[in-house]
Amino acid sequence: MIAFILQRLMQSVLVVFAMSVIVFVGVYAIGNPIDVLIDPGATQSIRDALIERYGLDQPLWRQYFTFVTNVAQGDLGRSMVYNVPVTSLIFSRLPATLELVFVAMFLATALGVPLGIWAGYKPDSFSSKAIMALSILGFSVPTFWIGMLLIMGFAVNLGWLPSGGRGLVAEFLGFRTSLTSAEGWSHVLLPAINLSLFKMGLMIRLTRAGMVEAMRADYVKFARAQGLSEREVVFGHVLRNISIPIVTVFGLELGSTLAFAVVTESVFNWPGVGKLIIDSILQLDRPVMVSYLVMVVILFVLINLVVDIVYARLDPRVRLKGEE
Amino acid sequence: MAVAETTRRQRLSEFWSDFAQSRVAVVALAVILVLLFLAFACEWVAPQDPYDLRNLDWLDAFLPPGTVGSGGYVHVLGTDNVGRDMLSAVLYGLRTSFIIGLSAGALALTAGIAVGLTAAYFGGRLEAVLMRVVDLQLSMPAILMALVLVALLGSGVGQIVLALVVAQYAYFARTTHGAATVERRKDYIEAARSTPLPTYRVLFRHLLPNVMPPLIVVATVQVAAAIALEATLSFLGVGLPLTEPSLGSLISNGFRYIHTDRTWLSLYPGFALMITVVAINLVGDQVRTVLDPRQGL
Amino acid sequence: MTLNTLRAGVAALAIMAGATLPVMAQDLTIGLRAGPDSIDPHWSTLGSQAEALRHIFDTLVGVDENLQLEPALATSWEPISPTTWEFKIREGVKFHDGSDLTAEDVKFSIERIPEVTGPMSMTIYTKSVESVEVIDDYTLHVHTAGTAPSLPNDFIRLFVVPASIGMEVGNEEFNSGESAIGTGPYRFVSWEPKGDLVMERFDDYWGEAPHWERVVRKEIPDDAARVAALRSGQVDLINYVPASDYLTMQNDSSLDTFVSDSVYILNVQPVVRDELPQKVRVNGQEIDENPLQDLRVRTALDLAIDRDTLVRVVLEGLGTPANQLMPEGFFGYSTELGPREYNLDEARRLLEEAGYADGFEIDFTCTNNRVPGDSVVCEALAQMWSRLGLTVNAQALNGTVFFPAAAREEYSLAMSAWGTLTGEASYTYGSLLHTKDPELGLGAFNRTGYSNAEFDDLFQQARENLDDDARRELYEEASRIVMEDRALIPTVILQTVWAAPTGTLTFTPRVDQETLAYRITPVSD
Fold first, then answer.
1. Residue C30, pLDDT score
2. Closest Cβ opposite residue C313 in set B58, B154, B242
3. ipTM of the predicted assembly exceeds 0.90
4. What is the largest CA-CA distance in chain A?
């Protein structure tokens, strides 16, 4: 087992290294950020001085080497736009994104799981078919378009909810959150619904599939034969059995929802990490782009690693295969 | 050969009767065919070529749907800020979206099959490395991959297609690999392997046909996803600019007007996008049900 | 839950949200498209940065709403030798920490800039400074490398910080408020990147006391969201109302709009070098010659632009036809140049005379959403030139693609916005039109290869001349030459719009588009 973890760990480090090279070279290829940022009144000598100061005149490999050395010392560099350390910039935006993601995941689960249970319990009823059709909508309609419709409907035409931005932010249990005030909730509601629809579709389908499978299983037949009520069968046996995959997927999807928030944050102008990365791409704020991407790669490599290890524990065959 | 022909025909008609059990899916298929026709016949169907600037007249700017413009015909979906007929713009945009979606889908399919089959057939270290990369890519949201790639490659149809292929090939690779691994253990492959047949023949004549059904399902879903992704990228401002139209850039342009009464600028291209994507997904869903009735996901 | 109870619930939520907003007459909340990138006033030349920090820090030289110089921390200035400017520093000015302003602080501020400034380098304002000499507490001599008649114009963004903060402090100390000590009408309370900038009135301010006790500058980059925030009462004033909403607002009696010309002009940049980076095609065949080198072709392009239509239809009224590279009243604006003519027949004739009777095909590249209206003007220009018989492939690109490629001189015909931010000609002419000459530091943004000895000569003379009237004349002459040469083709001056609830605020829009809380008063007063 330890050998397996070590091997996977080594692979992960290699992947992170490879990805950081790709990201760095790619970002380098886009263009010189000085040309995007520089003031038009600048002279050639000012431009040259800046390029030298930011080390952009160095060969690519040396720039990468400097970057890696700094990262090894925990320094991801400074934003070229805000002149603050990239880490503090990203972490100052993280609470807003986390808040949005948690509300969205809560909505997706709280609505998606019961709907999925129903659709799986009565797979042939009209309501189940309607639920499944809805889940296809949630799956396939682009997030930004739903977001626009939500804004048009609820913010522009009805005027019930604000069309974007984050509400009042207050300190709560050490977190800066907007979820302690009604105004904060009114701001988070539309973007959270928008972000949750895709995940809700996923939750519905996952739960339904589990339900359908479970209802055919022997233990359900036995339970029914024992004379247990349908309620007891579903909530006592079936639900317990299908909850493990649901919880696993929930955990896994948190990571991708974090990254997915890019679109929702842009549509609703939510001041989170996703908006930050879009802005930095549009401004060519190289240190922010590179650091964010490397952090995302690390996040996903970690998720993969954890999943691998968990599965290896659950299913020894995986381990054997890995050690082949 | 004649025998093979009839069984193929039989299988097709069987497939169709299974598929037709869902009326929704049949309607969706019809919708797709109509949209495809309209999109690729747009040069004849659309009232104007919206990207030949000589055709446009500024005096026609911002006409609401149903108004007659200087061209003497009705602008069914209105006009935009340079006097472009929105119906024409949507049809041409739809064509761009289809071209991007279909070519990205086809290229990703090819790349995915190549990677998946190679991994499954050769096994060993190569398989481990390839599938590791594929797994990692799968865990990353496609939108993020595509966003970064477009930021790196620059905007333009070719660049977007490339970004989408890189972001999507992994789905095909995983599916191919999964199906091929199962097939590989079967006797006929072992038998074929032990004969002096060249490797590619084993791959293409024996393995490939057997992994096709699940790939078809993935392909429909991925074409829809590619169309949606391109629209999203253009909406975020890193995809195609308004001068190089797709449904996404039209919607993005219209988004600026949602606080005014000119909602037609974003609504109609948006509906066109939604209908396209949903229809493809509905068809894909039914194909999946037919090919693999057990799976609900 | 029925649909009705859901509705009631949502409505209640919205009402509660409204109720929690602080409604105090002494507060002013402004919704802005862009905010500062840092509180360090020497970090960047970004317009929104200067605008925000002007509340906290004062500049050495001030400007009124038409970018004309006026006294600020310096009460007067004059050249005492060809290479020395004397500035008299205002007496009795207090910093927010209670200390007094002296010439020493100004010297420190000038010298701090090269140490701390970022990629949008502020050294463009101090590039002509060789050394700074403190004569006494209230007199300062600035020695320049060569004659620098426009030095006072360069100092309109020279923010003064106290020397006591020390050379070591950087961004963090400013952002936290620790070193955010200025002499301005407001003192810093809090800020975070992309967030709200909160400020309180500074009671010992040397100038006229501003009305508002507390000012919150909210950064709302999204146009639609900013308009929504105004309509819902979350903010009292917004800037950069998008053209699409401007029309609606004009018909809306609950909102007042304020319109002003900006300093930004969309210019077409025809490359006149011998070889074009993107070749021109005639009947589908690439040709080696560069038609844009021919003045008749450039004039034809100019004559084919219907600027009135651009303003009225394409920009929906939010613009002014431009007849030169600066708005009227700027130092060097030539009053001899009339409005630019629109004459399609004459344009066709010139094109024919130049040997392009059948037109040609050319690529035309513009910025996309860099300034309001750039991409639509781009398409409209292509449309107008197509009436001339040309085939114009218009492409609007993001700034991240456009600017690096423009710097590599990859475009044959391009369009982007240019603002004469200092209010006088040398800024624009030295960068855009003077022959590219890295040694002199001139022509850094001359992408077209334009080079006219007569123009260069006039520019050099003007640059050395300390007599305002003589210099003005020289620049006016230079303006006339470049316009006759069609070195650049100006199209429209962009206008910007502010909006506030009807009858609440009075303020005079500024040509630099700055929204300054201390120049805004309530109507009831």
1. 94
2. B58
3. no
4. 88
